[in-house]
Design brief:
With 434 residues, the protein is an alpha/beta fold. The chain has eleven helices and 21 strands. α1 crosses α2 and α7 runs parallel beside α8.
Amino acid sequence: MTLPKDIWYLSPEGIKAYQEEKLRETIGYIFEKSPYYHRLFQENHLIPDDIRTIDDLLKLPVTTKKDLQLHNMEFLCVPKSEIADYVTTSGTLGDPVIFAETQNDLDRLGHCEAQSFRLMNTRPGDKLLLMCTVDRRFMAGLACFMGGGRCGMGVIRTGNGIPELQWDTILRMEPEVCACVPSFLIKMMDYAVKNGIDYHHCSLKKAQCLGESIRNNDFTFNTLGQQIHDRWPELQLFSNYASTEMQSSFNECEEGCGTHHKPELTIVEFLDDHDERVADDRPGEVTVTTLGVTGMPLLRFKTGDLCYHTNEKCSCGRNSIRLSPVIGRKGQMVKYKGTTLYPSALFDVLENIPGVQNYIVQAYTNDIGTDGLLVRVGSTDRSEQFIKSIKDAFRSKIRVAPEVSIEPAETIAELIMPPMSRKIVKFQDLRGEK
């Protein structure tokens, strides 16, 4: 498939005109091919000609994660003989959902991450160290692999973990770019210091940060991002935001002021709890309509992720929408002692406490039926003073202190990286479980 590389430099009106042309093509295709959406149109007394503009999307109900779980394969638009790849969602807020991709969809996915690497100003001939998995039914690793190749980069597939292997690869092959979970960079630096590796003068210069936020809403570094930047200032960090369902991603440019939308791939809305669009200065749930997907396209899919957004032109010259870091996931909101919290707020506190080796936050239903919070910390310091310092840090930042349990770091490590997981798990929602 052929997709434009520079659409984000068009005027906002030009971007909108392109998207609405592709939207009409998408609606016609989905109405004809998708059992789920064909039925949805009929139930709402709609025909394809009723949806011709972005504003017309408001006539359609949203698609939720529950819809995908209950009717998974009814979203499939092609015979199984045309499916080139199967992936699943991570199942963060429920059971994983299957997504089937055609060769067209894989080409689109490669284009998507090639655009991410262009935003990072990578160059043909650079080498990409891929420190995330391309197996385990994971879309992101495959997207990075294909996108790197489209940009003229040679890709080195080390996969996640094993700092020794990563450093051996860096020192032997001298990659300039990496794609990784940012917290792993801390382990990389710790290993380098312990083994006498001068990482400040190694070949790596750019890191695409997947799966974890490195910035606050004002685009300054959060605790994790600041730790990496302070210790490895030569490494330029780029945020990436993605989900399997949208079959695309948002990525920062070198200005570091929000992740750029790729308007040739999706239409994005920001909705409130009543599925109405929010004003530009209000957070909204990222809601995506895919463009150009032939396997399992989605209309008005609510991701569960809450973000701010801006339509202002970026100083890089692009006119595409930019997203803030994810404030939180709607399904992960916790009401604790009268305070509304998202796990990311707790993570930011824990990342800044000396002596905390690792951690996992667990939400549960307490004896009186309200939300409880248990923070399980991996540390060798089990003193009452250490526990008090953790609780004091929470009180100073978020006004309330959850329960704290100090355990061996090895025990926590098994919880945050279970055998079937593709991502580090820092939050477990046990509410409703006995």
